[in-house]
């Protein structure tokens, strides 16, 4: 399967630089999947993956602009993204990584006021441009162990998140297997695997994204994804 950019994607007009993959049929996310993040949130670690979705209109590439509506309280979340390479239905954890095309850095940008007010997360996670991914798709064979990668996020050059994918509660393989039991994963589908501690909403005082901010997500072996924030009317 060739993962090429779809120039007719509605996200293209929002993204600036092209996306590193085509528009996926699904963008699946996992909440509270790092032990250190669950601890900072004061929540019990989940006993099974906590799934939610972002819509494809959220996707932008490296260098694209995160457009935040004025007055929306917005946060960052560094995440390892997995791109599916072939159809996966009811696969086991042992075979799940064989279905991976490659990996990306991702930023699960979140409108915290919408997320918390709604009581479910899809709307607050799915504003236009709220899912930067990139900088390029790194093939699976170049990442022998996705559970041993450093993951960091900088906001205007200040290190805000600094952890490891070893902190994941559910591994990449376990997540793929879990999702595939009820939803067939198609080539090009993207899974965001959760964020570590250090998000803005749980800081004292809280930190939100502002106009002109620069956000960079760096994951060992994957690369560095950088985007700027613009507050819109």
What string gives the helices and strands in order? Answer: HEHEEEEEHEEHHEEEHEEE
Biggest β-sheet description: 7 strands, mixed
Portion of residues in helices? Answer: 10-25%
The number of strands is 14
Describe the oligomeric state of these chains in a short phrase. Answer: single chain
End-to-end Cα distance: 40 Å
Question: How many alpha or pi helices?
Answer: 6
Q: Which shape, going by the Cα principal axes?
A: globular
The largest sheet has its strands arranged as 2-1-12-6-7-9-3
- Share of β-strand residues: 25-35%
Q: List the uncertain runs.
A: 4-16
Mean pLDDT: 92
Structural class: alpha+beta
Radius of gyration, rounded?
A: 16 Å
Task: Label this structure with key terms.
7-stranded mixed sheet, globular, 6 helices, 5-stranded mixed sheet, alpha+beta, 233 residues
How is the topology of this model organized?
Elements lengths: L11 H4 L11 E5 L3 H7 L8 E5 L4 E2 L4 E5 L4 E2 L2 E7 L8 H4 L3 E8 L2 E2 H7 L3 H4 L5 E9 L10 E6 L2 E7 L7 H9 L9 E3 L21 E6 L3 E10 L1
Parallel strand pairs: 1-12, 3-9, 4-14
Antiparallel strand pairs: 1-2, 5-8, 6-7, 6-12, 7-9, 10-11, 10-13, 13-14
Structure write-up:
The chain starts with 11 loop residues before the first helix and ends with a strand. It is 15% helix and 33% strand. The chain has 233 residues and is of the alpha+beta class. Mean pLDDT is 92; it is low at 4-16. The strands form three sheets. A seven-stranded mixed sheet has the order 2-1-12-6-7-9-3. Strands 4-14-13-10-11 form a five-stranded mixed sheet, with no helix packed on it.
